[in-house]
Design a protein that fits this description.
- 38% of the residues lie in helices and 23% in strands.
- By secondary structure, the protein is of the alpha/beta class.
- It has three domains: 171 residues, MoaB/Mog-like domain (Molybdenum Cofactor Biosythetic Enzyme, Chain A), CATH 3.40.980.10; 70 residues, Alpha-Beta Plaits (2-Layer Sandwich), CATH 3.30.70; 154 residues, Maf protein (Alpha-Beta Complex), CATH 3.90.950.
- β16 and β17 form a beta hairpin.
- α2 runs parallel beside α6.
- It is elongated and about 80 Å long.
């Protein structure tokens, strides 16, 4: 079945809101054996009509998001009824649902709010447990017309409606197909072309769909196929990429670290200079991080390194802030000040200026201090823009920490690259 998604909303076209619909809808559809074949985003207004017409005769299922509210720019419902030659009528059940929500919140209800209760009798109502605007389902009644789902725009309303109401309907429409599964290997420290050169040909030879998605310091290797083919692929991937794989699911590096620290009952802290709190930000984005992450120190100035972490000013004067001894002292100082069992540090030259022949722009030292173990310091160079430099340094530092936690520390440390592409696939 060909599935297309139409996202509506001028705010999406202006960049006021990030469009997250495609990712969440695609994840929901995959277990049914469905893939999104085309996605279009249009502003509010007449562009919705033209975009919907383009799907007629081409798509089997059309998922439309946005434009179901009570304001003058919410016209998706009206346009759909007009295209299908249907008449909108006030639905008493939807009215009661809206009235209950307003009463529960103690808010006055204007007449315009009831526009959300208008629907053609031919459309099935998808009740909205997290908002006032219901979704609507228009079954296909002609070969050239897709099944149409009108869904609310806010993700907190859209995602539960997809899971609880849209997917059960689609499950009945989807013809039986051979079961396919997806496996995601998250690889750190290798570029996209490096990953492909190691495993691409043998994986394609198995008849798998193979895809790659590169980010600074990371590559996702995506395999889709039968369970039997995926089982045959795993030894190939592990033999060629094993020491660089940090997870075989969709978890982020920081999520894996938080979960591993939690399981082992360990705590850690961070001391950052050149990354400016980037590591702390990533770690605290993980639910449950408060159980293991004790403190983060952003010591950008030399004086702060001394005051907060106890780094000897003479050490900085002798070796410079960007140096192995200072990185070591920062990590050990963060562990001492926080009481954590583990601590990491970063100090480097992000650029575009400030480098020297001995320490060119992009030079960075990262360190890991741990209870009962010698402090480890690594030197790297990432000659790139400041943002990518921070991302690569962060991934390098977290990789160092995870290798200590999962016992891979004795292996050769990952050599990070900026990556050499975006996302793609073969198969």
């Amino acid at each position: 079945m060909r599935v297309e998604v139409l996202n509506t909303g001028t705010e999406l076209m202006l960049g006021s809101i990030v469009n997250t619909h495609l990712a969440s809808v695609a994840r929901d559809l995959f277990p049914l054996g469905l893939r999104i074949q085309r996605q279009v985003t249009v502003p509010d207004g007449d562009a919705i009509r033209q975009a919907m017409l383009e799907t007629f005769g081409r798509a089997d299922v059309l998922l439309v998001t946005g434009g179901l509210g009570p304001t003058t720019d919410d016209i998706t419902r009206d346009i759909t009824a007009e295209l299908l030659g249907l008449k909108l009528e006030l639905d008493p059940e939807i009215v009661r649902h809206i009235e209950r929500r307003f009463a529960k919140r103690g808010l006055p209800m204007s007449d315009r709010v009831l526009l959300q209760a208008m629907r053609p009798p031919e459309a099935a109502v998808l009740m909205n447990a997290f908002g006032t605007a219901p979704g609507l389902y228009f079954p296909s009644t002609a070969a050239e017309r897709p099944h149409i789902f009108l869904l609310p725009g806010p993700p907190r309303e859209l995602e539960p409606m997809m899971e609880n109401q849209v997917l059960p309907i689609l499950a009945k429409l989807v013809p039986p197909t051979p079961a396919e599964q997806m496996r995601m290997y998250r690889v750190i420290g290798l570029g996209e072309s490096q990953v492909e050169s190691r495993v691409g040909e043998p994986l394609l030879a198995l008849g798998l769909e193979v895809g790659y998605c590169a980010r600074p310091g990371e590559v996702d290797l995506r395999l889709i196929g039968s369970p039997e083919k995926l089982a045959q692929a795993d030894p190939i991937v592990q033999s060629q990429l094993g020491e660089n794989i940090f997870t075989e699911d969709a978890r982020s590096l920081e999520q894996v670290i938080v979960e591993t620290l939690t399981q082992r009952g360990l705590t850690f802290a961070t001391a950052e200079s050149c990354t400016g709190g980037y590591i702390a930000n990533k770690m605290t984005n993980v639910p449950g991080a408060s159980r293991v992450y004790l403190a983060g120190y952003v010591t950008y100035a030399n004086e702060a390194k001394t005051a907060a972490l106890g780094v000897d000013a003479a050490l900085i004067a002798a070796h410079g802030a960007v140096s192995e001894p200072v990185a070591r002292a920062m990590a050990e100082g963060a562990r001492r000040a926080s009481g954590a069992q583990l601590a990491v540090s970063t100090t480097g030259i992000a650029g575009p200026d400030g480098g020297t022949p001995e320490k060119p722009v992009g030079t960075v030292f990262v360190a890991l201090a741990g209870e009962g173990a010698e402090t480890v310091v690594q030197k790297h160079r990432f000659p790139t823009d400041r943002e990518t430099f921070k991302q690569l340094t962060t991934q390098t530092t977290l990789d160092l920490l995870l290798r200590r936690l999962d016992g891979r520390e004795e292996q050769v440390a990952a050599k990070f690259s900026e990556g050499d592409g975006g996302c793609g696939g073969q198969g």
